[in-house]
Write a structure and sequence with these properties.
single chain; mainly beta; Neuraminidase; four-stranded antiparallel β-sheet; 24 strands
């Protein structure tokens, strides 16, 4: 039986981008300008204020954290909190910042931007290679969000939130190239906006619905919804698998500004699921 409960004490203004690494959950508080860590077993929590809105965090082979925010890509040293700037692909777009980001199974970073003023088509999806060089790989988009690769590494699923659909790309691990972009899930009739996304070991997609208070599981081959988890937070933003067996689903949320909620901004964990996720891929910087 599924069990849903909040964990940790932090109330994020806008929690996002959870990733599981070494018995801990890392995530960002976009509007709180922070990268956060939670150890569910001990209850220990840490956060690093990075001085800007930060859209994603991914772990690196070097031990550092790779992030993206208002001013482009940067690394964060967990030991001393120092930041090293890498590059800003959109220096002339002050209303844009990085949003969701994930590593491909071969260790490249894919991360996209969001037009915070909602200018249609003003954002892009980028790839960062092992040498820290970057290039645009898809666009135009407006609010680049969920990313997930199948377990064989040959397919990438991708969400540009306002489109209310999930696109499918063929992925070439030799080059980091993506081909295609056909829609495989039409979510226009769903309550809320498709936001962050993860994938389980059966290659089923788990999608968080912002403004919808839930995470739903979909079969991308048939388009059918196969599971649903209602979350007591209107702004349900993203999800990832983790825990001792990889079968705990961790869910981030934000604070709903239109009405007061008891648990908006909390991290939730769902236990008792029959399937788990894949091990996180580190960015290959070492």
């Amino acid at each position: 039986m599924k069990k849903i409960e909040p964990i940790g004490t932090r109330i994020s203004k806008w929690g996002e981008g959870p990733v599981w690494l070494e018995n801990s959950l890392y995530y960002v508080d976009i509007k709180g300008h922070s990268v956060c860590r939670l150890d569910p077993q001990t209850g220990e929590e840490n956060d690093w204020n990075v001085g800007e809105e930060v859209g994603f965090v991914v772990p690196c082979a070097s031990g550092k954290l790779l992030c993206g925010g208002d001013n482009g890509f940067f690394t964060l040293d967990k030991d001393d909190g120092s930041i090293t700037r890498i590059a800003d692909p959109e220096p002339n777009l002050p209303n844009n910042r990085f949003n969701d980001g994930k590593c491909s199974p071969d260790g490249r970073l894919f991360a996209g931007t969001i037009a915070t003023d909602k200018t249609t088509g003003a954002a892009r999806l980028y790839r960062m290679d092992f040498d820290l060089s970057w290039k645009e790989v898809f666009g135009p988009v407006t609010n680049s969000n969920g990313l997930a690769w199948t377990k064989d590494g040959k397919t990438l699923y991708y969400i540009d939130s306002p489109s209310k659909e999930v696109k499918r790309f063929d992925y070439d691990a030799n080059t980091g190239g993506i081909i295609g972009g056909n829609a495989v899930l039409d979510l226009a009739d769903e309550l809320g906006i498709p936001d962050g996304m993860t994938i389980d070991k059966e290659d089923q997609l788990w999608i968080a619905f912002c403004h919808g208070g839930r995470v739903a599981r979909f079969d991308p081959k048939t388009g059918r919804e196969t599971d649903r988890i209602e979350i007591p937070a209107h702004e349900t933003t993203s999800c990832t698998f983790g825990g001792p067996t990889g079968q705990d689903l961790y869910i981030t949320t934000g604070i709903y500004l239109k009405d007061e909620e008891d648990q908006g901004g909390r991290v939730f964990v769902v236990k008792g699921l029959p399937v788990g996720g894949n091990t996180v891929t580190l960015f290959k910087d070492a």
